[in-house]
Amino acid sequence: MRAYLGVVLAVWACVGGAQRSSDPNDIPSNMNRPIMDSSKLPDIPLGNPESMKTDTLAEPLDEEDFNYELPMSDAIASHSAFDPIFMAGLFEGDIQLASESDLASILLGGPRQRSGIADQHKRWPNARIPYVISNSFDKLGRATIATAIKNFQQLTCIRFVARTSETDYVHFIKGDGCSSSVGRVGGGQAISIGMGCGYVGIVMHEIMHAVGFWHEHSRPDRDKHISIKWANIKPNMEYNFHAYTWEKVKSFGISYDVGSIMHYGYTAFSKDGNNTIEPRRNQKGVEMGQREDLSNSDKKKINAMYCKGTPVGVSTSPSKFCDDTNGYCDEWALLGECKKNPVFMEVSCCLSCRKAKQNDVLGCRDQEKYCSLWSKKGECTSNSNYMALKCKKSCGLCPKSRRNLPPSELIPFVSTLT
Questions:
Q1: Residues 6+ apart with CB under 8 A from 334
Q2: What are the φ/ψ torsions at residue 114 (nearest 5 degrees)?
Q3: Residue 215 is labelled as binding a ligand
Q4: What segment(s) does the record annotate as region Disordered (predicted)?
Q5: 409: annotated active-site residue
Q6: In terms of pTM, does the model score above 0.70?
Q7: 209 annotated to a ligand binding site
Q8: What is the pLDDT of residues 175-187, one digit of tens each?
Q9: What is the DSSP secondary structure assignment for residue 151, as one 8-state letter?
Q10: Distance between CA atoms of 88 and 94, rounded to whole angstroms?
């Protein structure tokens, strides 16, 4: 099998495996690339981590996990020689491939899916990703994963749901290094968050793979935006830098993004610490190799793949777990800001807006059992702010009456939200 692949690889290298793109603006970019070793395929681990078979599951993420306050220094310098995504030693560092035939197809088959998967069957139905989580994560590990998930749910239309009986799902596991398959591959598939991978940005990078995205540097138009320093790459690691054609690529019409969370850093697979990738032009405020957050183009590509037309940063439905991040959320929701300023309020005052929506559906009601008694004692006047929030019915502050409250009893909505 390996000998046969070697012959095919030699032929493919001679004719130029990265064929002419159908994109008229693409630049043929394989002329100066080293020819791959034709004697063998890379010897890399394949399939899910073995530890996944015997892993003990924990309860799904809960409100405590989503509300846990993470350390402030949760980021990796983009110029750092250390990038956790390479620790697993898989294809391109962190991509789990199911079999040797998948690896051969990628390296020998010429064009393949890049940036975003084109195959609809490999996307998650209705943008919902069922998940389970290993019992091996401590409180900080669970909170890190929860924060990464919350970012996706606040900024894109992707939704994570605790698995019940779904056949296809992701399994957050503490494996060897950081890794994930690309897209929905069928059955349980690991998202490994091992030792050294406990950063929100790293978890988001791996989730992005599972959602259906490859590394940005492998797009066929990359050579217009970056320069690969082949002489600085570790021997036999050059295959991690090959780009392919547009035939199966889904870029969704979104430009190449050096600042994508899916882009390699400057010294990826460097043999001596020198740069292996350099941007062709400096872009102010853009960091190549950042592992902090989804870039604007990352968010656009996700929504283009799963919910075309949905603006980024807007949740199309409330997440299962949400909370308020501002002490005035109750008041703002009471003043109708959930409808007036939906983008800000969905992110900052999710819980209060959900309660306000329930009040609209169920009718105005008291939230404390002693509201009627407090009202009779004059608390609606002497303790007006609290009573307006908790005892609207007893104080006569249901929607029609609420409009007649004097301005002195309303906490003004901050100007930054308008």
A1: 356, 388, 389, 402
A2: -135, 155
A3: yes
A4: 34-54
A5: no
A6: no
A7: yes
A8: 989 999 999 999 9
A9: H
A10: 6
